[in-house]
Structures are given as structure tokens and as C-alpha cells.
Amino acid sequence: MKNKKQSRVKIVLPVLFTFGASLMFFQADAQADSSQSADANTQVVATTDANTQNNNSQDLNVSTSQNSAQAQAYTQSAVAANQNANNSNVNNDGAVSLSDSAVQAAANKPVVETNPGYSTSQYNVTAQPVNAANGGNGAASLNTAGLNAAQKAFLDSIHDGAISTWKQYGVLPSLTAAQAIIESGWGQSSLASQYHNLFGIKGSYNGHSVTLPTREVYGGTSVMINDAFRAYENNSQSVQDHGYFLVANSRYHNLLWKTNYRDVTYLIRADGYATDPSYTTTLNSVIERYGLTAWDREAFDVNTGNIDDLSVRGNQLHIAGWHAANSYNSNMHHFIILLDGNGHELYRTEVAGVYRQDVQNIYSNADISGWGGFDFTIPYTGSFAGQNIQVVSRYTYNTNGEINGGKDLYFNPVSLNNNAGSLDDMSLDAKTGNLNISGWHAADASLNKSYHFIIIYDGSKQTELGRYLVDSSTRTDVANAYPGIYNAGQSGFSLKLKFSQALAGDQIQVISRYSDSQSGEGNYTDYRFAPKTFTANNACLDSYDIQGDKLNVSGWHVADQSVDKNYHYVIIYDATKKQEITRQLVPTVSRNDVEQAYSNVYGAGNSGFSVAIPLTSAMTNGDQIQVISRYTNDKYGNTDYVDYWFAPKTFTANKASLDSYRIQGESLNVGGWHATDQSVGKKYHYVIVYDATKKQEITRQLAPTFDRADVEQAYSNVYGSGKAAFSVNIPLTSAMTNGDQIQIISRYTDDKYGNGDYIDYWFAPKTFAANQACLDNFRISGNQIQIAGWHVADQSVGKPYHYIILFDATTGREVKRQLVQAVARPDVAKVNGDVYNAGQSGFNLAMNVDPSLSGHNLQVISRYSDSKSGEGHHIDYWFKPINVTIK
Questions:
Q1: DSSP-assigned letters across all residues of 632-653
Q2: C-alpha triplet 121, 123, 129: angle, nearest 5°
Q3: pLDDT of 632-644, one tens digit each?
Q4: I want to staple 648 with a disulfide (CB 3.0 to 4.6 A). Which of 547, 570, 624, 835 is the partner?
Q5: Using CA atoms, how far apart are residues 619 and 677, in angstroms rounded to an integer?
Q6: How far is residue 577's CA from residue 574's CA, in Å, rounded to a whole number?
Q7: 188 with 15: CB under 8 angstroms?
Q8: Residues 9-49: pLDDT tens digits?
């Protein structure tokens, strides 16, 4: 098959094929095990048959062959499927279809529940520390009495990680073990059993996670949400990541490197790890009941090391690392022993010490550290190929390497079964609607497995959606990067898949499988690529504003989940009141620019929309108004939809300007313009004169608006800007010229009396208190004084009596007053035309004076009064005193 030049794609299994829940998620860059492996620390390989399709607890690492009856039945169904491949599952562009039955089955499946539902009450035991005199450090040895086999196996699975976490991070092993027991229910919670997440830590680990439902409490209410949880290959990874979690969060630093478990269990509760007030008591009970402090004492005894390299170099196996230990003296021999995955010895040799200064620096107090290094090669033979090799470093007095004094150090197994892959492309083609899949998968275990399948798997529903036989293609780049992996040069694959609603929203995982069976079962090795969720949902509003009496909305919206949703609605939503205002069905418009930018999102090329929606007062009432773009398969726009909620906007533009605000004759002239979004539905326009000092209205007048092209041009996106002008003359009253701050309010209202529902613009206040005068003539002739001049004052409104008063500034008393008739002064009106009474402000009179006033400083006062006597309410202008001589 590998020598064929032309690519082929076959539909082998268009029927439902369910993997166990434990196969849902794997790290894309990790090594997968071969179909022969049964080691608990490997990652990817698994097989199933018809009897295990719904078994969610299947072993990740067991590879089996189907019995002959099953294989025959399976092959027959596959052949039947192939007979229909060309007419029902393959389109003209070469894309293949998903199985309708598999898609329906996935849609009807529930999502996996992540909450373990374990209660800590089962651990509220009353056992006391066995050795209370020893600082309260619990039992002298591990107590497994009463534990079942699964619980003992769970302790074994976390033991090495707990010890290693102390040495790496300073997290007490007894604490790690107790928390793992409590948080995972002895590893039996679904999150722990399927994804090795023992502590319920959210997020991702080395880029890998699984999105599952979980319960959260918001405002006292328990709700189900989807959230990402870290996914691990094994329990040891989870334990190690738990240690790093405590180190990475500074609030837990006070419990690191402490050796008394009671101190540590108190601190982790106090630092906020748990809100349960009995959490410390529960941890202590578990530690004491099972003697977990035995692990603490084990961790304090130095016996550690590392395998720096265990790899094939040409035809040699290279082994390098170090082993530091307390139990050592110079008479001992150092042996390296290699075991297979079943613990059978494959090789042993005595090694010479290779000095490691870095190890000496860290473990300077150990009996051997720096000289515990080793670095050697041995012939690579078939006995090593495909095995999980465990290195054992041993210090012993025996020259044959048997145990005699010293200590052994068992390193984590390393797989020599290389399994690598990369997904170069898993994206949508916006033009064709096809899902393009390409990449490579190289595996030592692919030897003698001539069938290469690409399996499409719904990780959210844990259902296989289809599998397809593909031709492996040449990949020189992979061969150069991975020369030691079998089939690296012929590891490429590509597949075109018709995009389906079943792929939108769920976690879709690609599995590359080499199998010795034409059904894809039998003996096989898999590489599971990181899943991808096709939930791309991008949009942009190009325009969202008022144009005339319409709300103009245009832009684009692309969404993977819009597949098979043929109705597109634009919805106007009041985000403040949380209620819909209106919706409108819109045709989609071609958008080449969007297709170019989002070529891997479904529907990008036909994603545009533009609609003009009649304005209503509900859209301009000051609330946050939000546009929602919705794709739906319901012609009324209600069910099975995907939305994009654009940022809300408040249509409260309120613009205005006073072009004229002045006194003209007997009137207050007010002119200008006022445009506001909130005038929608408000047909009455009032100009209100308001006393801002007394905080009371003086008068109001209905002022119809008229066209203002300049305003419309400047504020085209504000409602009513084209007809925003007003001009009104309001009869002057003394209340407007009493010296108070007088303010103009422009009001649009739905009430003919100017009340009701309204929107105002308050212009800057102004005080009408102009008071100006000039003495044109002050001349004495005999005992008579000729007086002439003018006096204008805004506050003369309502004061019809004009007096000229002669005041003796020398004695501080009035001499006489005389009522005068107004004299027209057009010259004054021309200069002070916006001051009340300017045109009739002149005065001209003669007064007889007593000669005894000669030598006095006489002062002229011009007074406007509302009283015939010249008293009452009045406004004065005091001219400068003049020293007079009367003959």
C-alpha cells in the first residue's frame, strides 16, 4: 500500500463506534504505546470490540484482537458500508460525509459528568497517632489494613510522585497523599479515573485539557457550566502538578519544607485551599488512620536520581544519569540494571562513576552524589525494541550486582516504542464548507500494520463519528526530523470531510491509526491529536447609528455553528431592561474581505448584512441598546441558534447651540437649534425661561422647529438634526431682568403642555443686568442747572417712572428729584441695542438750586422706579459728583 502514488479515501465504518471515556483526551506531543504494551505508564494505545464499546472503564493500555466471529461480523459490516461509499458519502469535490446514525447518536448522548460526588464524611475517623510522642507525626509505618485492592493500587500509583514532590517542591508527602485520597475518592471520581486529575485542578497541563460540565455556585445558586480541567497521562503527573500548583501560588509558601504534618494541614486550610472548617481535621484523620507519615520519613532519606538520557543512537542504546544516596560507602559496587515493562531483567552491568558537579552541589550531604553519575552505551538489540525500559541503579557489596547493603533506585520507565505525530491542518474551507485535515503519524509499532485510518471522534459525546481509510504519503521532512522512527518518511495523510452540525460546538478529535485489520480493529497503534472545538464566532459592526428616522445596522458575522442555519436575524435588544425591542430577518451579503480574513470559518464569504430599522422611542430612551446577529434554523428565529452580541450603545446624543439670546425691544429673543436622539416620538418643542437663581420656571412658549441644513450636515447621525432650528420672541418681564441667572431650556416632549415624557437641553445661564449711562450736559446758569444724558438698564423693565435726582454728596442728602419724560436716543439704541429701553433712554431737564449749595459736590442719580414717588422697586445709575459754583 505504501508504494501507491495516488491517494485514496475509503469509508470503512460509517456506523457508531464508541471508545471508552478514558480514551477521550491525550497529549498530542506525548509518546503512545504499541499494541503489545500493558505498562501502566504508557499513553495512547487501546483496542475495543463489540463487547467493550460502552465500557467507560476500559484499560488504556491493553491491545487485543477480536475473536474470529466478531472480526467476521465487523468485516461484513465494513464491506457493506464500502459498497455505498461512492453514492452516499462522497461528494463531487472528494469530501466524505459523516454517518447520519452516528451523528444522531452523538446528539442524543449526555455530556460526561465531572463531579465525583464524594463526601469527606467517610474519613472523619477518630484514630490517634500511633507514636504521639514523636512530635505528633503519626503512625510508624503505612497502615493498609482494611483497604481493598483498588485502594492499595491507588496508593502505589501516587507514592513515587508524592516522594518526588517533596524533593522537588517541599510539599509533605503525607499531605499530598491525604489530599489525593479525599479529593479523588481513592481515585474513583470520574475526573480522576478517566483523566488522572486527582485534585480537580482546572486549566490545562502542558497544553492539554478536557472541557466537561461541573457544578459552580454563583450567588448561592448551584449551576452546571462547562469548564476546562487539566488532563494527565497518569496519577504521578497529577501529583507532580499539584506540588507545582502549591509552589506557583505564593499564599501556600508558608507550608513548604515543613516536616510536621499537623502544621501543614493547619496551614493549607488557613491559606484558603478549602472553605470546609473541618478540612484540617479530615486531613489529620486520614494521615493518622493510614500511617501516611511513613512516606514523610521515606522522603527525608536521600535516595534520588535522574535518567538524563535513554535513547537509541545508531545501533547503540545510550544510558546516562545519576544516583545520589545516603546508604553508601567506598567498598560498594555500582550496577545499572535494565528491566522490561513486566519487571523482567534484560541487562545488568557494573558502571564506573562519572563525576557530576551539579549533583554534588545539590546533595552535598549525601554519602554519594557527585560520583554517582553514569554514562555508557550497550548494543541495541531486539530484546529492547518496543519495550518500556526501567533503569535500576544499585549500590551493593556483591560483585555480581545482587542486593547486599546500599540502596536501589527505580527510575520511571522509558518507552522505546516511538510514536509521534502532528496535525498540520484541521480547518474549515469557507468556500466549500469542507473540513480539511492533514498531518503525519510515524510509529515504530506500525510495522506490519498496513491499514492507515483517520478516525473522527466526538470527545464531548464520546462517540466515533466515522473512520476513513487513507493512503500514507511521502514526508521527507518527517524522515529528517525523526530518522529513528519506522515509517517516518511515509507518514503523511490528508482527508477532506463535509462539515456537519455534529462537528460544531463539540470537541472533535482526530485519531490516526495503523492497524493490521481492514476494519481498523485487530492489533493497532493510535496517535490521538489534541481535540478542537469548532466554535469560531466572529463579527464586526461596520455601522451602528441613526440615519434620519432609521437605525442603520450593517456589518458581518461568521460562525462555525451557523452550518445548516439558513435564517439570519438582526435583533435590537434593550440590555438595560433585558428585553427584546424588535427583530428583522435579513438576507446575507457577499463579503470577500471577510472570506479572505476568516477563510477557515464556516460561511465567511456570505456573512455580510445591512438593515435599516424604523426608530422607536424604546431605542432612544437612555438604555443600553444592543445588536444581536443570529443564525437559526427556525424561520421565526427562536430555536437552535447561534448569536453574536455586539457591544451595547446608548443613543443619547443631545446637541444644541444658542445663536441668539438677547433683549430686543420689549421681547427676549431666543434662537438656535437642538438635536437629540431622545426626541423620537416627542412632537412638541418648547422653549422654557428658567430662573436658575431661584430655581423656578418663569415662562414657557411652544416653539416649532424648522430646517437647518448645516446642523444636519454636522450631526447626520443624531435624530432630528435636519429640523432642529427654533426662533422665538418671549415678552419681557421683570422676573427676567431682576439680576438673577436666567437660563434657557430647549425641550422636546410628547405632551402638548410641555410636561409628560421629555428631553431637555439646558443652555448656559445669563444675567440681564446691563446698567449703563452717560451725562452729556451738566451746566449751571445763574441758580439753574441744565442736565442732559441717557440711561439704559435691563432692570428698568416694569419700572415706568424715570426720575433725575440731585444729591448733595458733601452733606449726604438729597437736594431734589424731578420726574422726566423719556427722550428718544437712536444713537444709544444703535450701540446698546440689546439693552432694554435703549431707544427711549434720553433725559433733558433744568433744576433750580439754592445758591447755598455753591462749593458743594453735587451728584446726579438717574432712577427707574415702579412707584410714582420714585421709591418702591428701582434701579439707579450714580454719576460722578461735580463741585459747583453758584453765583
A1: ESSTTS-SSEEEEEPPPB----
A2: 140
A3: 999 999 999 999 9
A4: 624
A5: 9
A6: 6
A7: no
A8: 333 333 222 222 222 222 222 222 233 233 323 222 222 23
Alpha helices in 450-508 (DSSP H): 476-481
755: helix, strand or coil: coil
Q: Residue 564's pLDDT band (boundaries 50, 70, 90)?
A: confident
Buried b (16+ CB within 10 A) or exposed e, 504-530: bebbbbbbbbbbbbbbbbbbbbbbbbb
Q: Which residues is 463 bridged to in the sheet? A: 458
Among 464, 570, 565, 574, smallest CA distance to 510 is for 464
Task: Evaluate whether 308 touches 372 at the Cβ level (below 8 Å).
Answer: no
CA–chain centroid gap for 825, Å, is: 75
The DSSP-derived string for 218-263 is: ETTEEEEEEEEEE--SSHHHHHHHHHHHHHHSGGGGGGTT---HHH
- DSSP-H helix ranges across 806-846: 826-831
| Residue 144 CB neighbours (<10 A) | 12
Alpha carbon dihedral 537, 541, 546, 548, in 10-degree steps, equals -110
Of 409, 398, 153, nearest to 298 by C-alpha is 409
Helix, strand and coil percent figures for the chain, each rounded to 5: 20, 35, 40
The residue-averaged pLDDT of 146-166 equals: 94
Whether 497 contacts 481, CB under 8 Å: no
Nearest-CA neighbor of 282 among 393, 402, 185, 351? 185
72-80 contacts: CB < 8 A, separation 24 or more?
74/50, 74/519, 74/521, 75/517, 75/518, 75/519, 77/13, 77/15, 78/12, 78/13, 78/518, 78/519
Handedness of CA 258, 264, 267, 272 (dihedral sign): positive
What is the grid cell recorded at 384?
Answer: 529492547
DSSP 589: B
Say yes or no to pLDDT of 118 above 50: no
With b for 16 or more beta-carbon neighbours within 10 A and e for fewer, the 785-819 pattern comes to: bebbbbbbbbbbbbbebbbbbbbbeeeeeebebee
pLDDT at 878 over 90: yes
3-state secondary structure of 759: strand
H/E segment holding residue 164: helix 149-169
Asked if 550 and 620 count as a contact pair (C-beta separation under 8 A), the reply is no
- Determine the Cα–Cα distance for residues 455 and 525; give it in Å rounded to an integer: 12
Output DSSP code: residue 803: E
Per cent of the chain over pLDDT 90 is: 69
- What beta strand segments (E) does 665-738 contain? 667-676, 684-691, 696-702, 725-731
Cα 801 from Cα 817, distance rounded (Å): 12
What pairs with residue 101 in β-bridges?
none
Cα–Cα distance measured from residue 558 to residue 611, given in angstroms and rounded to the nearest whole number: 17
**Phi then psi dihedrals of residue 840, to 5 deg:** -125, 45
Which backbone phi and psi does 818 adopt, to 5 degrees? -145, 125
Q: Which of 161, 154, 209, 100 is nearest to 412 (CA)?
A: 161
- Report d(CA 606, CA 433) in Å as an integer: 12
Nearest to 385 by CA among 486, 528, 306: 486
> What single-letter amino acid sits at 490?
Q
Residue 690's Cβ-count burial label (10 Å; 0-12, 13-18, 19+) is buried
Mapped onto helix, strand or coil, the DSSP state of residue 387 is: coil
Q: Which of 567, 576, 569, 572 is nearest to 550 (CA)?
A: 572
Average pLDDT, the chain: 84
Residue written as cell 428718544? 824
Identity at 245, one-letter amino acid code: F
